[in-house]
Amino acid sequence: MSAPRTPSADRLGRLLNLVPYLLARPGILIAEAAADLAVTPKQLREDLELLWVCGLPGYGPGDLIDMAFDGDRVTISHDAGIDKPLRLNPDEALALVVALRMLAETPGIGSRDAIERALAKIESAAGDLADAPVAVKLPADQEKLAKVRAAVDSGHALRLTYYTPARDETTERVVDPMRMLTVGTFAYLEAWCRRAEATRMFRIDRIDAFLELPEPSRPPVEAVPHDVSGGVFRPGPELPLVTLRVGRTGRWITEYYPVEQVLKEPGEWHVTMRVTDLGWAQRFLVGLGRDVTVVGPPELVEQIRATAHAALDQYAAPQALAADPPAGG
């Protein structure tokens, strides 16, 4: 059985440490090095094979890392300068400063103290570059983010005016904030919704208004945070299942939205996907035009047919008015 694959980030960190480690231990047994690095000998050999094609730009003789094998022992014969301390050029240092400043302002980010310590070290090393007139602006209402974050930190309940696009409606509700977090490019408030009697995720840019209440936030014991490792939308069997026939120009939806099944046939794909609400599906699919045909469920087919007829009637009305002769003609 092959060894389990490690995440890319873990492997990168291991590769960066591998050359200095081997330089300090020429002729070390591969099995011994693997044990020190907490990997299998097979994985370590794969890492060494990858190191052979790593090095400096130019990638010719003398630019790449080289090593020598003697049976089950390995020795680094050329390190390509990877043992030298990292030196950032001005552009790289400024990019790191801007990225860390943005990260420090992102809601829901943990270990903010560690971010600020790292930022302080890089700003100190960057010198005058750290004071460059670069504005860091996140794609969201910063004042709203700051106020919602302050309410969460203060432990107060909130009254929200919230827009739900799936139902195309605006509602008012009282929530008990639990945390703020960022998923993808959007900031969310996760809270216990007293109206729904369940934990809900509220996208910050869809909060039309909010009021901090004097009462404390008291989520009940059943208020469990969502697992957002796979995204905010987690389709389940309880949601409506929609079946579509999709032409060439509509295939992008299979990459942008979670789908359960894609059957690829010449000329069209048959796609099934879960949706939170049939009303949202109706508005979404009507906007895709004739390249997507709804197969089911029957109630969605009927809703789209009615919407299409209503739209055609709107186009027909001006034509009827134009056929009438102008007054006084």
UniProtKB/TrEMBL annotation:
Residue ranges annotated for the WYL domain, each copy included: 144-208
Record-level GO cellular component terms: proteasome complex
Annotated InterPro entries: CBASS_pafABC_assoc_protein, PafC-like, PafC_HTH, WCX_dom, WYL_dom
Ranges where the PafC HTH domain occurs: 10-123
Domain WCX: from-to ranges: 241-312
UniProt-listed Pfam families: HTH_PafC (PF19187), WCX (PF25583), WYL (PF13280)
Annotated keywords: Proteasome
PANTHER family: PROTEIN PAFC (PTHR34580:SF1), PTHR34580
Protein's recorded name: Proteasome accessory factor C
Species for this entry: Actinoplanes regularis
Organism lineage: Bacteria, Bacillati, Actinomycetota, Actinomycetes, Micromonosporales
